[in-house]
Amino acid sequence: MCTDLQNTINTSRDISPEGQEVFYPGVGYGVTGWDSISVAVATADIVPACGFEFGGSGWGFGSSAFLPGLEGNCWTMAARDMAFSTGDCNVLRDVFDVTILPGNIPAEIPSVKTVCRHTAYTPRLDGLNIHRAQHSVTLLRDYSLPEGQKSEFLRCMGGGLAETAFPTYVVVDESGHKTTAARDAKTSLDLTLKPGSYFASFPYMWGSFAIMPLKTDVHLRLRGGAFDVGHDVTGSMSAGTTVGTDVIYICGKFGSVDEKDFDHFRRAFGLASNPSYKYRVNRGRLMSTRYIFDVQAEGGWASAEIGQADMGSDLPINVRGLSKNWDVGFLDLDTHELRRVGIYEGKGILARNIDDKGIRFACGNMVTCDNPGIVLNIFQRAGKWVVEAHNPMATLAAPRVRVASWLKGVVPPFDRVVRIPLGSTVSIAL
Q1: Secondary structure (3-state) at 20
Q2: Could you tell me the residue range of the domain that residue 63 belongs to?
Q3: Are the beta carbons of 113 and 138 closer than 8 angstroms?
Q4: Counts of helices then strands in the chain (DSSP H, E)
Q5: Same domain, 156 and 105
Q6: Does a structural domain hold residue 235?
Q7: Which residues have CB under 8 Å from 211's CB, separation 6+?
Q8: Which of 56, 121, 282, 413 is in Cβ range 3.0-4.6 Å of 38 for a Cys bridge?
């Protein structure tokens, strides 16, 4: 947190390969309440003892929507919610429903509501900084194109580039064909990015950056020092219409001067075809391998094997279909190492390094019962496993509580009915 308590940056401390203490903020969120995001990297030799104020990468972007002719287009403030935060991943949710009138007077936006979810898996030291932005614009009123206009550009996300930075840009289409050109303050560019393609620009003292659509086409518009990502609106839209955008922004490695790292990321994480790693799902159903290894659980857990591959960044793993009321764990089936996993919107969310060694794993709710309203925790106390069952309901509960079968050999078995008075917690030693 900066000294005026306005800018927040998720910061970690580490040791570089040369033995130097480094600070690695990863993704930093700009002035609290506003719609900016930047990436900062700092080392101990340039950070004062009291901390640092803020560092930028020469580019940043905002996620409030703009559509010509739409009432309420001006400075927009966001209600911010750090919805999920673990050592693996941070999720920030922005809701833009307040505009700023002349005189800095806040007022509700009458015609549109914008929500943007920013997801950043913890980057490696001296690695790529990968940030996913899932953006949606919902119209609250009918919209018609201004008279005489055949189309308008709906800006969903965008920002600026440092005036003298990023003199070169590259466009890679979904087939891998590459176009390289120069960029300056007069550059004007309009293009459609499809999943599997990307736009990148470099170099700058901080490195490079890239924009990659994840699921659907997006339009990119570059005007000198400003870039916008969004969609062309070619006709009327009725109230209730939602326009979605799902893109990955990547800040390249410090000092990078070309697109090689982005090419590698595109191939390794399966943005254009199959990912670099081999895999097999033994329990559950595979949902996607595009950037995230995404699996739907079966009966509260999933199991898979992921082979070793040169990824360059940790592989995000999501396991869907889990209960938020019951603790989630991730078990390495080879080492029997068990770790906790954060859960958000019914998904266990983590990331693993598979560059040197693949992994066989099981992941799911570690303890379950036949009453979804009961809250279950499992942990070790004084070397012994303990289950805590909490009843938040206004009546006595008698659920059948079970330790998950996939923990056999790691956690003692347990399967019995537990009586829990209303509003009470019962501890059970295994």
Answers
A1: coil
A2: 7-268
A3: yes
A4: 1, 35
A5: yes
A6: yes
A7: 193, 198, 199, 200, 220, 227, 229, 247, 248, 249, 250
A8: 56
215: its two tokens? 């699921």
- Domains identified in the chain, total number: 3
Looking at residue 347, its pLDDT comes to 98
Instruction: Measure the CA–CA gap between 41 and 125, rounded to whole angstroms.
Output: 10
Residue 410: per-residue pLDDT: 96
**Any residues with CB less than 8 A from the CB of 248 and at least 6 apart, and which?**
130, 131, 132, 133, 210, 211, 212, 213, 214, 291
Residues 289 and 148 in one domain: no
Which pLDDT score is estimated for 164?
67
Amino acid 256: pLDDT? 78
d(CA 321, CA 295): 9
Question: pLDDT below 50 — which residues of the chain?
Answer: 1-17, 21-59
pLDDT for 127: 82
Residue 221 CA to residue 66 CA, distance in Å, equals 13
Distance of alpha carbon 347 from alpha carbon 324, whole angstroms:
8
Look at residue 24 in the predicted model and tell me its pLDDT.
41
Helix, coil or strand: residue 265: helix
> Phi and psi at residue 164, in whole multiples of 5°?
-105, 10
Instruction: For 93-141, give the DSSP string.
Output: EEEEEEEEETTTEEEE-SSEEEEEEEEEEPPPTTS-EEEEEEEEEEESS
Q: Domain check: are 337 and 375 in the same one?
A: no
Q: Do 59 and 145 reside in the same domain of the chain? A: yes
Q: What is the pTM of this model?
A: 0.85
As a whole number of angstroms, the distance between CA 291 and CA 89 comes to: 14
Query: Which of 318, 333, 362 is where one domain is finished?
Result: 362
pLDDT of amino acid 45: 40
Q: Are residues 60 and 180 in the same domain?
A: yes
Last-in-domain residue among 268, 297, 320 = 268
C-alpha–C-alpha distance, residues 312 and 83, integer Å: 27
Residue 1 lies in a domain: no
